[in-house]
Amino acid sequence: MLASARSEKAGGRDVVAGLVETHGRRETEQLLEGFEALPRKPIVYRNQVMHEFDLDAALERRLSLLLVDEYAHTNVP
Fold it and tell me: Which of 75, 70, 68, 67 is closest to 51 using CA atoms?
C-alpha cells in the first residue's frame, strides 16, 4: 500500500495517511516519511483519552487518496 501510495504522490496526487499503524517497524516508518498524516481525534472513554481515526476530518479534506490501515481495529463507542 505504501509503495503504491508513494508512486501516486510522485505523480502529483494528493495522498494523506489517515491511519497507518507501524507497530514499531522501522521499514514501515521509513515508507511513511514524506506523507502528511491526519491528526487522530482524542476521545475520552472510561476516564482515558483514546486517539482514534477522525473520519469527519478525512471527509472534510476531500482527499484524492487516503491511506487507512487497521480496518480490524475496534473503535471506542
Answer: 75
Q: Please write the tens of the pLDDT for every residue from 8-41.
A: 999 999 999 998 888 899 999 999 999 999 999 9
| CA-based torsion, 63, 67, 72, 76: positive or negative | negative
Q: Residue 77: enclosing H or E segment and its boundaries?
A: none
Distance of CA 30 to the CA centre of its chain: 15
Q: Which residues have a Cβ under 8 Å from the Cβ of 45 and sit 6 or more positions away? A: 76, 77
Burial of 67 (0-12, 13-18, 19+ CB in 10 A): buried
Domain boundaries, the chain: 2-68
